[in-house]
Every structure is written in structure tokens, then in C-alpha cells.
From TrEMBL:
Family according to the record: Belongs to the glutaminase family.
Catalytic activity of the protein: L-glutamine + H2O = L-glutamate + NH4(+)
Organism the protein comes from: Antricoccus suffuscus
UniProt keyword Phosphoprotein present: no
Subunit structure, as described in the record: Homotetramer.
Name under which the protein is recorded: Glutaminase
Residues holding substrate: 62, 112, 156, 163, 187, 239, 257
BP term (GO), one: L-glutamine catabolic process
MF terms (GO), sorted A to Z: glutaminase activity
Keyword field: Acetylation, Hydrolase
The enzyme's E.C. designation: 3.5.1.2
Coiled coil: none
Keyword Amino-acid biosynthesis part of the UniProt annotation: no
Length: 306
């Protein structure tokens, strides 16, 4: 099939790019091989195409945010979640300590303040802890059991002062209703879930496939919630580079500081790129480049009018 050859040519071009730097504010993330680079495409009917380091584990980091937000939406409904988390792009960095003046709401669930709030909206149900519910939900999107990387979690928890500041701020304005500490630990845990490029591609393909995992047939998200989620990913998923991303790539997406980018072409496919060197926004340099190239070559921009 010509697809693997094509993906290989994209990989070859982008692999030359050594711009950017690996995230080091979480010590455990700094240890990674900066040259790792994988690209994986999963079609909405579950076929996988992969090139490069698609089987190397990394932590999900902020690519967890859409899935916890989805779980919060499913538990509480769009309206109730909306009283706690807005749906406006902030134009600020992912870890900005900014809350809406009148209500204290974080701008959206793709930045840390909103993501920590989304985590707080998941309650343990007696049988399962909040984190276990989150881990189990991500696993269903990936179609296999995912686990936490404890070294990342500990590193993240030991150095997460800024996220703690955000959590305490959220508590002061009443957006968090309980003790922020356990919420923050679960947020650190969710960011430390370990997966590979193929898992991310299948998670994205599940979103592309109307919320049904194409490999397991599990229905994980209803249509109105999925539309809501993809909209927020479109406007907010790439942080303060969202505008650039939407114009040049044109797909709902989410990045993480470990170097992953997940993009969704609704009805068609999920795309995952992993490469740890980041640009100044915290998005993978090669990841952005590969997605731009794929979008252009394959006509994947969702505003493409032919
Ligand atoms: N765990 C990271 C943090 O909260 C996630 C940030 C990210 O991936 N952009 O700082």
C-alpha cells in the first residue's frame, strides 16, 4: 500500500528538524531521548498505519484533558459542567493562573486550571476511586488497559507547585468545592498514564468514529458531548497556538508536554505524533510539522472547500 511509503517520507523530512527542547520542568520528562519520533494514523474503522517510534511508552500529559473532560460531561451534563468551566480559548499559556473575573471559572478544560476542575468533577462511586474511574475510561478509549508510570507521577507531584497554586486559587473562588490536594494528586496521576503512539491514535480514532472505539465496538461518548468536546479541542487544544494550528492544520487536537499530539478528522481518522522536543507553546515541534504536512498533502483541513 502507498500509505506506509508516504508516512515514511513525512517521517524522513520531519526527522531532520531538531528545533525545540524537551520539557524539563518535570524532572522525569527531561530524561527522555529527544530524537524519538513516531507517527501513527488510525482510520475510523480501526486500521493502523505507523512509522518510527510508535511503540515507545510516554506519559499522556495534557492529552488526558479531553478524556477527563468527556468523563465529567458524561457524569454531570454540559450545563452543570458549564457552571464550572467555560469554553473560551484563553490565548494564555497552558499553566496560566487565570480565572474569569466574575465567576472564577477557568476559560476552558484544555488548560491546567480547567483540567484540574474537570478532574474534581469526577467523584469516586464507592466501588472505584476517582483515579481508577479516569484510568478505566482512558483504557476504553485506547482499547487496552493503560497504567500509571509511577516515576513520572512522583516527579510531577514533587514539583507541581504551580498546579497546586492553581488548585488553591480554584478553591478560594469556590470552583473547587473540596480539599484541592487529593484532586491535584489525581490530576498528576492522570497526566502520568503511560501509553504509546498507537494508543493515542486509537483514542483519536474513537473520537473520529462518533465516540465508538473502532476496535472494541465500545460506545464511549454520545453525539452532543462529542461535538462539544471536539469544538473545545478545536479552539483551545493547542493552547496559545490554537489559531495557528487551526489555520495551518484544521483539525480538533490536543498536545501534551511529553511531546505527543493527537488530532481528529471527524468521520475519517485519528492521528498521533510523538516527538519530545517542544516549541515555545509546549507543542511538539516535529508533531506540528508532521500534522501540517499530512493535512496539506491529504487535504484533511476541516474547512477545506473543494
Ligand atoms: N502535567 C503537566 C502539567 O500539568 C501537563 C501539561 C501539559 O502537558 N501541557 O504541568
Amino acid at each position: 500500500s502507498p500509505i506506509p511509503d508516504y508516512l515514511q517520507s513525512v517521517w524522513d523530512t520531519c526527522a531532520q528538524n531538531v528545533d525545540g527542547a524537551v520539557a524539563d520542568y518535570i524532572p522525569e520528562l527531561a530524561d527522555v531521548d529527544p530524537d524519538l519520533f513516531g507517527i501513527c494514523v488510525a482510520t475510523a474503522d480501526g486500521y493502523l498505519y505507523e512509522v518510527g517510534d510508535t511503540r515507545t511508552d510516554f506519559s499522556i500529559q495534557s492529552m488526558s484533558k479531553p478524556f477527563t473532560y468527556a468523563l465529567a460531561l458524561a457524569h454531570r451534563g454540559i450545563e452543570e459542567v458549564g457552571t464550572k468551566i467555560d469554553v473560551e480559548p484563553s490565548g494564555d499559556a497552558f499553566n496560566n493562573i487565570s480565572l474569569e473575573r466574575a465567576t472564577g471559572r477557568p476559560s476552558n478544560a484544555m488548560i491546567n486550571a480547567g483540567a484540574i476542575t474537570a478532574t474534581s468533577l469526577i467523584k469516586d462511586d464507592g466501588a472505584e476511586s476517582r483515579f481508577e474511574r479516569i484510568r478505566a475510561a482512558y483504557s476504553k478509549y485506547a482499547g487496552r488497559e493503560l497504567a500509571i508510570n509511577n516515576d513520572i507521577y512522583e516527579s510531577e507531584s514533587q514539583t507541581g507547585f504551580r498546579n497546586r497554586a492553581i488548585g488553591y486559587m480554584l478553591r478560594t473562588v469556590g470552583i473547587l468545592e473540596d480539599d484541592p490536594d487529593p484532586v491535584l494528586e489525581d490530576y498528576f496521576r492522570q497526566c502520568s498514564i503511560s501509553l504509546d503512539c498507537r494508543d493515542v491514535a486509537i483514542m483519536a480514532a474513537t473520537l473520529a468514529n462518533g465516540g465508538v472505539n473502532p476496535r472494541t465496538g465500545d460506545r464511549l461518548l454520545s453525539q452532543p458531548l462529542l461535538t462539544h468536546l471536539l469544538s473545545v479541542m478545536t479552539t483551545c487544544g493547542m493552547y496559545d497556538a490554537a489559531g495557528d494550528w487551526v489555520t495551518s492544520v484544521g483539525m480538533p487536537a490536543k498536545s501534551g508536554v511529553s511531546g505527543g499530539i493527537m488530532a481528529v478528522l471527524p468521520g475519517q481518522l485519528g492521528l498521533a505524533v510523538y516527538s519530545p522536543r517542544l516549541d515555545q507553546h509546549g507543542n511538539s515541534v516535529r508533531g506540528v510539522q508532521a500534522c501540517e504536512r499530512l493535512s496539506r498533502d491529504l487535504g484533511m483541513h476541516f474547512m477545506r472547500v473543494s
